[in-house]
Amino acid sequence: MTTLILTVAGADRPGLVAAVADVVDAYGGNWENSSLAELAGTFAGVIELSVADDKEAELTSALRGLQGQGLLTLAVLTGTPETVAADDRLLEIQVLGNDRPGIVREISTVLSTHALSIEELATETRDAAMAGGRLFEASVVAKVPATVDLDALRADLERLATEIQVDITIT
């Protein structure tokens, strides 16, 4: 089996997911994982597919044909299933605070400095109901190698939370 990673983006309209799913099904592919969302009128996402090795080229060609059907961009990459070390752990981090530029950069820099790999990142801004202004909220799932000093990581995240005035919860 071959793993394919699709990135898709286009003006949001009904039927975009169905168009991709129809092509995947027509070539015997299996929709493994995905993260798809509408953002500011654009539908975008990442999809992991698996397909028999002898169908990969045909499926890839058919998927590229979708670009003329309303998808502005579509990239097809060959993926490699990840091997996870037995002693790796997952860490969940929640961030909440007043919105301002640079929050994602600063948090991701701390995680990178400690050799964490971001597995999932979801962010959102919304109006602050009682105080006015905008709130920033993020949910991060990161892979933590066994060699990471969790106390040092926690201390750096707490220092950062104070500096940028956000609440950071680690579980």
UniProtKB/TrEMBL annotation:
Coiled coil location: none
SUPFAM superfamilies associated with the record: ACT-like
Gene3D superfamilies according to UniProt: 3.30.70.260
Name of the featured protein: Amino acid-binding ACT protein
InterPro entries in UniProt: ACT-like_dom_sf, ACT_dom, GcvR, UPF0237/GcvR_regulator
Occurrences of domain ACT (ranges): 5-79, 92-171
